[in-house]
Amino acid sequence: MQVIIRDTKKEAIELAAAVIAHQITIKPTSVLGLATGRTMEGLYARLVEMHQQDGLDFSLAVTFNLDEYAGLPPTHKNSYRYYMNHHLFGKVNIDLRNTHLPDGMAADPEAEGARYDALIEDVGGIDLQLLSIGETGHIGFNEPLSAMFSRTRVKALTPKTIEQNSPLFDSPEDMPRFAITMGVGTILEAARCVMLVTGANKADIMARAVEGPVTSMISASALQLHPNCTVIADAAAADKLEQKDYYRWIFDHDPQWDRFR
Ligand code: GLP
């Protein structure tokens, strides 16, 4: 795992956007794993800008989102399909047929999970999986005690996640209690993982996920097992990391980051 600390949220987003742009530039047919949530909104806005101003081309890209709320149709404004169409897909030249999310309305969620994992496998796996972290330490909706080898399936959301996300609903009690999410095992199969973490409210969970022990109580800690994982954080989110100076030194001196500095 490599941790990169940028002073501001804007700089963290800029770097994450540059990494994604580089990925689809060197491999236009890239398979991207995508995430939702407030953290991602600025990143998608920047990618839209890169498309509009610099011609960043999404025409051949294929995407798989991490998760979807159970019971929300794509037309519901809190569904993650709606979020993705609104923040990214509707504003760049991606072919909507190449964009995938789990079907939150599936009559047989277990079969839907298996279908989703098989679809990812069929396209040759995910080249770059984008992630953020929830306050429970979840990636996707892999709440505490999600198995390290878990596959796409339904998870019950914790009270903390419901508290974190329900303000986004017109009536907080309308937030679904279940979601269908890629498993931790599904996520770890991506060739590369990039986790973007911003804001002081993430500092505690970030320190536990990155520098604490690997535990299914904090699904993001499983990323320590991934051979190619980059965590991009702003200074506020990185505040409680013990080895900040070391991480900063590596980023400043590692030639692989020359083009991004
Ligand atoms: C949701 C998503 C997670 C994401 C989290 C972060 O819960 N399922 O994948 O990590 O949001 O949310 P935010 O960026 O709003 O803090």
Give a brief description:
By secondary structure, this protein is of the alpha/beta class.
Could you please describe the fold and organization of this structure?
- Strands 1-10-9-6-2-3-5 form a 7-stranded parallel beta sheet.
- The chain is built from 9 helices and 10 strands.
- The longest helix is centred in the N-terminal third of the chain and has 18 residues.
- With 261 residues, the chain is an alpha/beta fold.
- Strand 9, helix 7 and strand 10 form a beta-alpha-beta unit.
- The chain has one domain: Rossmann fold (3-Layer(aba) Sandwich).
- The mean pLDDT is 98.
- Helix 1 crosses helix 2.
Strand content: 15-25%
Overall average residue pLDDT: 98
Separation of the first and last Cα atoms: 19 Å
- Highest CATH level, the class: Alpha Beta
Bound molecules: 2-amino-2-deoxy-6-O-phosphono-alpha-D-glucopyranose
Tell me about the biggest sheet?
7 strands, parallel
Question: What is the spatial order of strands in the main beta sheet?
Answer: 1-10-9-6-2-3-5
Please work out how many helical segments DSSP would assign.
9
Count structural domains: 1
CATH architectural arrangement: 3-Layer(aba) Sandwich
Shape: globular
